[in-house]
What does this fold into?
Amino acid sequence: MRRDLRIIADLISPSARVLDLGCGEGDLLAWLKHNKSVNGYGLDVDPNNITTCLAKGVNVIEHDLDAGLHDFADDGFDLVVMTETLQSVRHPDRLLSEMLRIGKECIVTFPNFAHWRCRLYLGFRGRMPVVQQLPNEWFDTPNIRLCTFDDFEQLCRQRGYRIIERFVVGPDYRSHALADSLPNLFGTIAFYRIGRSE
Amino acid sequence: MAESAFLGTSLGVVAPQRFVYADPFTLKCGEVLSGFDLMYETYGTLNASASNAILICHALSGHHHAAGLHSADDDKPGWWNHCIGRGKPIDTERFFVVALNNIGGCHGSTGPCSMKPDGSGMYGPTFPVVNVEDWVKSQARLADHLGIQRFAAVIGGSLGGMQALQWAMEFPDRVRSAVVIAAAPKLTAQNIAFNEIARHAITSDPQFANGHYRDSGVNPDVGLALARMIGHVTYLSASGMGKRFGRQIKSGDLRAGADVEFQVQSYLRYQGQTFSRQFDANTYVLMTRALDLFDPAAEFGDDLVAALSRATADFLVVSFTSDWRFPVERSEEIAHALLRSRKDVSHAIIESEHGHDSFLLPLPRYLDVLGTYLRRIHEEIHANAT
It folds into this structure.
């Protein structure tokens, strides 16, 4: 399993009710099902991913996140997970608020647009960064809502979301001393566990 | 679009069989049938533990002949031939497939065309009202007869999907998985309206004779054809019809006007006429009424989540983008109610321009979704057995 999914899997308690937004090929849910008796559901929009999930026995609902989550009941899940998808939805703020309505807690991961490589790329070349975590050219990228860790934390403060846990890693999904001390400069990907305001 | 991985090969010649149930059978409406016959076909081989059986539930005008040919020179295979066979999505190398004609049908099962047990002639319009629940219960009797305690899957499209849903609620212990295709948890007012137009077309045909047309040796061909034409238009989509027929002229001259016939006119007439020769009018009325009446949430205070809470099956819900008779949203209702009820459920939305009829067509992604899902169900059965 991808290392970032492994990190998330370790954050999930056994038998939790999990909704995975943008579940891809269902690796996280398949692992959770077999190792933590987690009966989860995935949402994805890619037909090939749907078939792959069906082959794995992962519950998957074909759904475009840009259509919102209004069919989902309040408090339907213990945890709503969204890995590296926040940056490609049309209304990230609305989606976050929906996620915290239907789930008691959320885990969100996304790439940091303020990583030093991005800063150098934009600062010196004067062009939109094409880096490992954001490999597409500006005109065909699915990543239309790029943000930095500081941006995300500011949004959480504005909306009163509680940041329960933050885990910052480098491009290899491992933690580094530099990324720990100056995350918004040296962190590539962040894992945020957030909850509703108290 | 890429070809499906589940093209497979066809079954060859198959033979229908008759199941005779000789005990009284009480229908939901309260009336009692002294027994019933069901025509059915089976494909593939039932394994020793009888764990590999799949039930196919048919839609409004379907029947037991779902796959294969009835003779070597038969030019028309069963209605779901591209889905059932060796290496096809419903793989007869893996599964034992049962398809039947429901009670009230006109293909040999007990229905309006059957003789009444008291010798007073044909049932005709006096055949009792039949509900989806009755079909499911009668199908369970057939399963008993075949030695099938639990189906690996119960599969149906449209009205057949409602039966699959009902199976999962009525007999949770007897359904490992339910595949609910292009269905709805109940009809909308618009759905009922279309059914009523179709019924009205039939019953207002003078040759219908209040349903006693067989006594006078006539058939309400005009009404039945009209019902089919209306139905058929609602099973297609505007864009699908546009692509297929456009404004092509079959005969006549557009400038002259009066004698012009568009391709779509000729197509619809042909569909209507063929259908009126093959299908019984009383059965059509009965089947559309069963559709109208289906509403499993009604006895649970209109709470579909509560109605589905009895189910234990794993569900696959499939819908088609251009289906406006049972649109994607209706399948989402089912999927979300199952999700809220904490059932295992997946929902695939197949891109198609063929409207409601899509569920009968060999669309590559549709075949792949069905085949992939059923292959996994088969693996689970196999894993449980060893």
The longest helix of chain A spans residues 92-102.
